[in-house]
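Service request form, structural biology core

Requester: graduate student, group of Dr. S.
Request type: structure prediction, single chain
Budget code: on file
Notes: please return the result as structure tokens.

Sequence provided:
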Amino acid sequence: MTEPFNALQLAQDQIVDLEKQLLKRKLRVNKSACDVHANVDDRELKAFCSNDYLGLANHPELINALAEGGKKYGVGSGASHLISGHSLAHELLETKLASFQELHIPKARALFFSTGYLANLTAVTGLVKLAPRGCASIYAARLNHASLIDGVRLAGAQNDAAISLFDHTQLDSLTEALKEDTKLLKIIVTDGVFSMDGDLAPVQELLHIAQQYDALLIVDDAHGFGVLGKQGHGILEQADIQSDRIIYIGTLGKAAGVGGAFICAQDSFIEWLIQKGRPYIYSTAAPPALAHTLSKSLEIIASEEGNKRRAHLNQLIKIWQDEMSFSIWEKVASCTPIQPIIIGSNANALLAAKLLDEAGYWIPAIRPPTVPLGSARLRITFSANHSMDDVRELIRTLKSIEQKTLEKTVA
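Core staff response, request fulfilled:
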């Protein structure tokens, strides 16, 4: 048996190190459709961990739309959008997506992507190129999603942009920094709903700051699109704001139930990203059958059924906020389907997740680097397919498990 070569040895050693720190992640196979019940490792579990907030991922109308789209357009796009991969299905979807934001972004136009990661990379790295190298500043919320973080880092490296982080709950430092900034282009980048805490970005205040200091405002509303606002159009609708300096990003694999993402902005910004957004230019377009399915999903989101699903979801959130209380764990005050429970150490979070699994629940422990050191947690997420009894049963189970962990607490 030959000895491992250096790179292989490094990989093996560092995986062992992750295990020692209780940071190694593991894949679990779900044999069922995405829903509130899952067949995981041949066991039936109650799932409170997906981002299928409106419960559309297994909706019969979307299943039929996918089959219809496959028959009409086939199963692949065959090329990038700018070669031959941009189908009528993509075009129709982008028109509908733009209509969702037309009251909030003048001359709104949308661009569809196969993933939210690609959309965020394209938005940040593409827009920073509006200024010559070294003439742009990027201000990013400290708790932004990994894809925004990577987009900001890449934009900084590619265009020598200055990068600053700010606390979205305290904007004085952002205001002071922008006041002193003389760069040609300034970009503020934030999540709409912060995915690990479930709190909202202060988009009205951020827009006011952007207007005051002539900055663009990029808002990644991955966890708000479909959920927030009376019609589910997202955080811009909920905040009732309008501006042509907003770059809005929405994800379509969460509340919309399918997959992909989009950027919506004033027409000139979208045209620029088509010309200069490398992840968009050099990626094969998503299968048009998915775009066809997403058009049906948007119809449901905007329909009376969508309204009822959002209303029910808000009922579940209210029950949780009103009836869930802990002795030592920390509940976060969130008005979204994301309801974290801050536990602290990796060991204690893993213990809680293990006890939940034994009780028939699928709620993984979330650990660093996804969340800050010392804030390992359970990330509860609700779906419109959960019942009120489901939530109350979960509350009873969690209260019991917290008491068990008090007896077995790992320092």
